């Protein structure tokens, strides 16, 4: 499968070939410089390395820091061979490599982004500036314009290449999410045509028969509601590593648990959303344990002012003053760790409002960012 990076590597290959031809033309126009044989030897090395890198960078398994390091060593070596070819410099002349030395800078930028591209530009520029400062070189000014162009090439190409990589990753994730959504819809149709209809029939017939069958019918109704909610939900994680807390909370909906959440997503980092949903699950477990398995409970979720708040409320016997502290001292850490501990780790707060005989309300808030 062709990756989005491949066009960048092909562009670098074209640049190397064109720059190699330009360096050969310069050598011919200069009559071979002071040492023609040495000049053509350097051009030969550049040609061989151009062919090698065109092949190496086209193979994904070969792209890596060893190849980048070798590319830079060959480029700097050919660049520093300029005095052996040209002898004493003349004002305004190009090195034996011409613009070919920019190929390594472009390769580093495509591989590692703008920062690595800038590092490569710095290395080549320092070698070029040192070359122009060789004693007897005859330059009174240094080629600052060439240095600036190298930095611009490395940074701009690296930045664009990195953006292209991210775009490809997000596109792939979007394709996977779309495929997951289609599969979910297919399963939902199959489940609706079979399992949900059976559960609805069991619920209805159980209520008609009564007795123990009524209990089976009630359980079937709860499972039907939970299963309908499950097949309705969209995939949790987005392409940015976030999750919709509403999706996670709706999983707790049943015949006894009512979940009320906004129609718009409550987007949180995936890990934060998972921990907050786990804290809500712990609160609902406490309701079932202390109020009874059939006790009704309500879950309310909202986002406002940079906070996401979830409230779990029941109409049970309430919590006596000091009871939570006594439970924590006795080693029963359901509220202390499963709820308060989780939310505290997320940088949030937990407020417990309870009066004996009036139910309990647990409010959990975490930063939305």
Automatic annotation (TrEMBL):
- Can you provide one Gene Ontology molecular function annotated for this UniProt record? kinase activity
**Ranges for the Histidine kinase/HSP90-like ATPase domain?**
279-368
Taxonomically, the superkingdom here is Bacteria
| DUF5931 domain boundaries | 3-169
Kinase as a keyword? Answer: yes
A Pfam family per the record:
DUF5931
InterPro entries given for it?
A: DUF5931, HATPase_C_sf, HATPase_dom, Sensor_HK_TwoCompSys
Q: What is this protein called?
A: MacS family sensor histidine kinase
Q: Where are the transmembrane segments?
A: 12-31, 37-60, 67-86, 92-111, 116-132, 144-164
Q: Alphabetically list the UniProt keywords.
A: Kinase, Membrane, Transferase, Transmembrane, Transmembrane helix, Two-component regulatory system
